[in-house]
Amino acid sequence: MITSAIGDSKILQATQSAPLQQNEAEKLSASEGFEKILNGLGANAFEALRTGESTAIAAIEGKATTQQAVMATMEAEKSLQAALAIRDKIVNAFLEISRMQI
Q: Of 78, 90, 91, 100, which sits with the fewest C-beta atoms within 10 Å of its C-beta?
């Protein structure tokens, strides 16, 4: 289950942050909705990595505490692990489909 790999990270929040209205959900095709979710996940993972890096640099400069640097780095690591797990699932699904006989 993906949520166990994600935990409380920002990636999980991206999928729940903007619930679609009934009319809007009907207008989106399955591929458009899936694409929108993946784009949100990627953007949030990138933002977590950027925040972790900037907090680590701030800690080196003495502008942030060690605890803040560790927390930001751990959040970035969780986001990266979740993104890799999602990528692996997508690749495995593609490989499974490519093995099907037509």
A: 100
Return the structure tokens found at 82. Answer: 């979740």
Q: Parse the chain into domains and list their residue ranges.
A: 2-99
Helices of type H across the chain? 2-6, 10-17, 22-27, 30-60, 66-99
User: Residue 48: exposed, middle, or buried by beta-carbon count in 10 A (0-12, 13-18, 19+)?
Assistant: buried
> pLDDT tens, 35-90?
888 888 888 889 999 999 999 999 999 999 999 999 999 999 999 999 899 999 99
Instruction: Report pTM.
Output: 0.61
User: Cβ(12)–Cβ(3) under 8 Å?
Assistant: yes
